[in-house]
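WARN no homologs supplied; continuing
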Amino acid sequence: MWMFESILLWTLMAAVILSGQARPNMKLNSQSSSGLRSDCVGNLMRLSLDKALAVGNELEVEAVNGTQHIVITARLASQCGYSMESDLSGNTRIYSSLLGCYVDNKDDRIFNVGMRLRIYSNSQSDVVTHDVTQTCSYTPWASREILCDRNYMEVSGFIADAGTKGLAQDVKGNDLPDVSGDAHGIWKLTFYTPEPVAMVLREAEQAGYGLMLTSTRLVVRSPYNTAQTTSEEVGGVSMEVIRVSAYYQTPHGLNVMNMAAACPTGGVLFIDDLISWHIPRRLTPLVDGSFEVLELHMGINGKRLDRSQMATRGYTLSTTHHHIVIEIPVGSPDGHFKSHASDYQYHISYSVEPMLEILWRAKDAKDDIRYKVLFPIKTPLLPQLPHFQESTVPEARMFRCVVGTFLHDVVLKNITFSTGVLTVDATNARGFIIQEHKYANGTKGYSLSVPFDADVVLKHNPELLVTTYLLPLTFGFIILPEETPFAHQVQLQASLQDVELPTIAGTCDEKYFYITVKYGSRGNNFQAMVGHRRLTPEMAEDYQFQENGTHFNVKLPYDAKDAVLELIQTDSLRARVDLSLLDHINNWVLADLYLACTFPFTTTTCYPNGTMTATAVKVQSVPKLVPSRLTLKDQSCKPAFSDDRFARFSFSVDSCGTTRTFFDHYMLYENEIGLHYNKGLYNKGVAKTSPNDPAYRQTISCYYVVNETQTVAATSKQRLYEPKADIGAGQLMVQMRLAQDSAYQLFYQAEDYPVVKYLRQPLYFEVALIESTDPNLELIVEKCWATLDEDRTSLPSWDVIVDGCENPDDIYVTVFHPVVSDSRVLFPSHIKRFSMKMFTFTKEKAVQKDEIYVHCDSVICDTSSRADGSCRGQCVQPTRHSNARQYEGKGAKPRRQTTQQMQTSSGPVELTSG
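OK structure emitted
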């Protein structure tokens, strides 16, 4: 009885799920229609399982010999002459040597091979059993037969019948063992590595060798790569070789047979799309002297092919002086392709199992040697860049593409879009159509359709009316059954002139501009500009902004800050609003509107008591006009009220240089509002910079009818309280600038930022109250600090000025610079100047960022009321606090109404090392 250790079940993965419970045995013959087919191929029995039995199930194979059922493990298979291989489609072939351990052998002529197949689908209880029996006859045997299968080498030799001599030799003399208990059997073996290694039968079996005496033959079977096999190169081809002397007992005495087997492990060349397999013509381990080749056959999967079959498939079998050569085109129908994912890229390989069968005859000994090799060949991995075909029609607004081709073991698992990863089912659920296409040659591909308007599509506008649509894709595939992943990236692009621009319409009534913006095809993806200012949420609130998803409306008063006053007449004022819509990225003007309307406006009012009021307007033609500088003919008569756009005068008709002219029935009083360029005004900031500076003149007049009497009635009553004037609201502006040097004459402009400075190079800052002519106001810089970012509240921060004074914790002390009057500075109290050394923030001795921003909080004080402590002057009675606190820990002090606090910040200042 054969004694072997069963470690691993000899299993494969099949492909059809056989449902139900355990079923009764099904006996097969060579014509079975159950997906199993058995036949005889020379000295082998071949059992084929087609793909109808499917990949995904576990197969257990048992050898059956009478009542014996032996589970074939991987070790037992190579010891007893069984092998198995499966291709990508699930087609599986099991081979059994006719001289196998569990074959019913009838005098080496008739061989009954039995097997039981157990196919487990989901569990050990869900099993389908198939019994297979096949009877083969094989005659005549050659004197010596050598079989090279994928997992073992087998050599058998003819032994003598009673009274005759075969390949064996008698053993005489002292070599005879005590074999009185064994009338017929193998005694021991001597392996040559090349040193002799002797083993008795039990030791050889335990080492994995298969040994057998039949009625006419001695059989030795060896796995590859054992301690007693050698690797040799024969004719430039790597071979696995075993040399052994087998001692066996017959009724006529003890004999010895010298045996050898040599099986190729190399000799394959891949030339373009051709497999070239070379086998040495003279196998020196097997043939010593001269010989002749009696038969030479090629086959596939253990079965011979005739010349016509070979020609149809493109196979060739030829001989050279040193080799027998078989050539097989890659992709021939007897092999199969397999997908691989090397380095996450798609590759394929091609596998085929050719067979070579040779019959030699030694010329001197007249012995025949049949040599049969089943040799599985697999090509190196072949890169297979998936083909990508785009069939997008931009006018249909749909991306369409096909990616492939792939072998049928490749499955599309997911697609990565710009917004994330979607499975195939999720992709179809989103309305993107994925379809699998199978082709006649067994390959397949996948098509994908995605509409332009999907959120996974990226869009940009290279031209004003053109949209470019981009669809980046990463197809994620897996290879079955291993589920090995790989990916293929593509990007689809299409351009279409499909931009519908927004439109603007507007109208006016007696007080307001009404503007409607209708969105185009890109929605509200634009920047609205009112005049020169961006429409901010604060402005939108002031202008009664309303939006409904398709358009927005704004309502502006005629004297809005962003309206342009074009022309003043006696009873009207013409004003204009400029609204433009700009592309966010390219700053293209998508639409614009210049809406000009004439509004009722009274410039002069004449009162019966001889008082006149007149209003002057700063119009577009005099952009540098300061209304507070306007006067009447008598330049001492200044506006009773003025702001940045209007000046209002109130005077009696007998003052301020008013002239009077008599007509028949009325009197005409006239004056003139003007801007007078003289020395006195020049010193107050009105300078004529060129001869082309416009002169402002506005004539005002009143008509009084002569000899008309006006009666004015008046009564009086006691007041309950003293009258008070409401305090008007105005806006003071403070700006912070970085000077180029200590002269404070040249300053960096917005386009100069970021300004680059060396470490500890002085930075000269000026903080100024602008557009104010009130000499009673004084600007106090209360605190300044530096940060890494533009955000005033960001951390870390470092104090530069604390409570109006330099930071005492700073080793490079901030310096305040005096301000004196000159041609630019009218009110020194409106300006503060200081300098500091350039520095940078570090953390654990590493520079955090090469940029700093400087921010300041300033207080505008009424010098006539010094009640607030911060209005005592710059750095008066400073309080010295530690700089350990950070900015967000600083609290705001309560201010009296005699002050107004302002915030300013610089642009970025960048540190350079040289």
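Residues 74-80 form the longest helix (7 residues).
OK
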